[in-house]
Amino acid sequence: MNKPLRHVWLVIGLLFVLLFTSTTYFQVIAQARLNAHGQNQRTLYNEYGRHRGPIVVDGHAIASSESSGDTYGYLRGYDPGAMYAPVTGYYSVVYGFTGLERSMNDTLSGEADALFYHRLSDILSGRQGRGASVELTLDAAAQEAAWKALDGRRGAVVALDPETGAVLAMVSAPSYDPNVLASHDTGAVSKAWTALNEDPERPLTNRAIGGDLYPPGSVFKLVVASAALESGEYTADTEIPGPGTWQLPNSSAVMNNRASGGTEPCGPDDVSSLADALRQSCNTSFAMLGTELGEDAIAETAKDFGFGQRIEIPLAVGPSTMGEGMDDAQLATTSIGQYDTRVTPLQMAMVAGAFANDGVVMQPQLVQAVRTNDLSTVSELSPKELGQPLTAANAAQMRQMMVGVVEDGTGTAARIDGVEVGGKTGTAEWGEGRTAHSWFVGYAQKDDQKIAVAVLVEEGGYGSRTAAPIAKDVMEAVIEK
Amino acid sequence: MATIVSYTARPRRILQALLLAFAVLIGVGAYALVGLGRFDELPPNLLTYGIGAAVLALILQVAVMWRAPYADPVILPLVVLLNLLGIAMIESVHAANSIYGLRSSASADRQMLWAILGVAACVALIVLLRDHRHLRRYTWISAVAGAILLLLPLAPVIGDARNGSKIWINIAGYSFQPAELAKIAFAIFFAGYLVSRRDTLALAGPKVLGIHLPRWSDFGPILVAWGFAMAVLVFQTDLGTSLMFFGLFVVMLYVATDRLSWLVIGAIMFLPPAVFAATQMGHVRTRITCWLDPLSSANYSSCEQINQGLFGLANGGLTGAGLGEGRPDVVPHAESDFIFSSFAEELGMVGAFALLLLYLLLVQRAIRAAVGISDGFGTLLAGGLGFVMALQVFVVVGGVTRVIPLTGLTLPFLAAGGSSLVCNWLIAGILVRLSDAARRPAARQVPGSPVQPAPRAVSA
Fold this sequence. Notes:
The structure holds two protein chains of two kinds.
Chain A: H1 2-29, H2 31-35, H3 41-48, E1 55-57, E2 60-67, E3 74-78, H4 81-88, E4 91-92, E5 96-97, H5 99-103, H6 105-109, H7 116-125, E6 133-136, H8 140-150, E7 155-160, E8 167-173, H9 178-182, H10 186-198, H11 221-230, E9 239-241, E10 245-247, E11 254-256, E12 271-273, H12 274-280, H13 283-293, H14 295-305, E13 311-312, E14 316-317, H15 328-334, H16 345-356, E15 361-362, E16 367-371, E17 377-380, E18 385-387, H17 392-408, E19 420-428, E20 437-446, E21 449-457, H18 467-479
Parallel strand pairs in A: 1-6
Antiparallel strand pairs in A: 1-2, 2-3, 4-5, 6-16, 7-8, 7-21, 9-12, 10-11, 13-14, 15-18, 16-17, 19-20, 20-21
Helix pairs in contact in A: 8-18, 11-13, 11-14, 12-17, 13-15
Chain B: H1 2-9, H2 13-39, H3 46-67, H4 75-100, H5 108-128, H6 139-151, E1 159-162, E2 165-171, E3 174-176, H7 178-201, E4 204-208, E5 211-214, H8 219-236, H9 239-257, H10 260-280, H11 282-292, H12 304-316, H13 339-372, H14 376-400, H15 418-439
Antiparallel strand pairs in B: 1-2, 2-3, 4-5
Helix pairs in contact in B: 2-3, 2-4, 3-5, 4-5, 4-13, 4-15, 5-15, 6-7, 7-9, 7-14, 7-15, 8-9, 8-10, 9-10, 9-14, 10-11, 12-13, 13-14, 13-15, 14-15
């Protein structure tokens, strides 16, 4: 009976070969297709079932995961929620994730390449894998000051350390509570989601870096003034024309000198120094200066400040733009921050930062350090230069002019005793019959401490009244402590 | 006296002891890893569990040394390892269920109790059954017992239909799959019956298409077996059980007669009922659909279980999610019918292959015993038990991995379920007894001489 037994053994062998083949097929060959299948909840569970690392500001976890005891394993919680929501984003089992939760996902979940050895040691020691913690550059005091000063008005505040590019504050209002969206109660989540999306104030938008770009108004004059200094033909003291009204070239439109619509000239005999024109924020002076410099010179300087660049901090920042191929009339309005010029508050903070950092723009960054759960450091912030729109000497001239604005011009509301504060206000018109957007862009420095700030309040009216005091609160939070 | 030395070396009891220790170490280690994976801590009962497993292994070792000193040293370590791995996975699924709360499953404690019972049954069998040929006395009793057991789920009150198949009985809250016990009974019956009738059954009849058909008058037994398999298929609506019994009979018939024609006839006879089931029975039809195309949106919801199993396989990938790190709880019956996909998810393709190789090795030991044994009854019994285990693994794993339609069988030794575990431990005991007979020096007076298949005098 041995021969048939050998045959039986052969048949068994064949059956097992089939099993080996099918197992290989589903575990290796078809693996990617099955993992990507729309109804495969495991992919979701794998994503949400990880012990995600916290997001930390000044030693306090503003986003952290806790065991939830349900099918997802962990619940993401935010404390405080709304103030940091534009930075952290939300982590929803229904609607995915945004903000740093998205752009730092690999690190927070522990899947990043940099964490390979950490993961390996977790596997070898049988520990449950945990994501790394992400420490932010944000300064809790500055963030809170900005959040309180903005007080729920539609707008954004960005503060930078000009020397490192570290983002000290990033506030966008109105905001939302990310805890509601991170909830595992999917019904409540979709209800909240609908409400947030239908809210006309669009709380889900991070106004500081994207979604909306804003006409900068008079704060763009800083860029035009820089271009003028860089051209070599102007200094702060150069006398430039600034009549009460100016009929734009080849156009019937007439530009008034004052943001309020007033037609007082910038100085006696319709002439003033560049510094004086900036101090008073004369429209005709800068419109004529801009047409004199030409589109290319301004565009070149703007580009060096970061305009038109895709910046990731690591949140993706909407590139700021100015028009292209403009005629003189369009260039004239561009030079006072209107026409097609559109900027993010972050971009304007970078502009202010360049003046406080000897003309060098630093790459803005939000992440101070990445640490594993056993506190070993994976990476730390290393400052990177983004560009140098103007020389150190010209930057010093710009600072001098901007101090003039705060000491004795439109920006007096931002003045802080004993601190060098320079800035520029802006009142950007953006729609017929709508109140103008209110801007303040500036810097403060005292000894080694430096901060660059941009404040935008939508439909806030005069920058000198609305935006400048907010900037002052944020600067004080960082400088005077 | 070199021969004496070689005789004392042949039992290989030390090798078995080492392998058993190794099996216990891996099995208990797996259990510890499940605890670490799920709760970040060692299971509180790890020490008790480890000592319990070691004691059971020791009892098995002593029983074999005492009553079956020449038994194959690999069989029991394989069985112990499979059993312990099964317990670890049942615990993993149970822990996942208690954490994530998608559904509930029995804890591993119950399986541990059943394992103790199974080992006890195995030891009792090794101790009490001194010679496997005694089983031949129960040839016809086995036939009747097997038939009753197999038809029991059709009885009113105790019969219990699950997933459309009536292969369970339920007595006082304890459910039981009688097919597992029937499997042993039928293997004994077929071996006893065929060994006495093989000469007649092997006689050549008419020749058709180059194959010698058996004589028409010999078709009786296969028709009876066929009819029985059909009854199982039609009334219990389970293709797997039906396939298992009919396959067992046909293969044993082939081994007994060495007539290929029986295999061909068997295969042809099984085709019409399979087609009938596929087209006429709603629940078999669903399973066929889920076999062919489970992932399309039209079929997805009715094929939920197999789909979740496949997602589990994909999630495991090459090296697996790790013990206690996967989500087998997403799959319905992840601790029993679909325990293979749970293993494939947590241990990956590497682990799944290892499991299949463990089974293949176990089956190989059974076939090896069948070849080495000197009486026809023993050969048939060992061959039959080996083949039916292989077939069962194929039907279950093939069902999970879409080689064949899904059926209601479970993996021997691994799957949660007391009746199956105890019955398979009984099979392990029989295999130990058979391998002991195969390797006993008295059975092979001159090394290398052809083994005589003719049975010795057997008291009937």
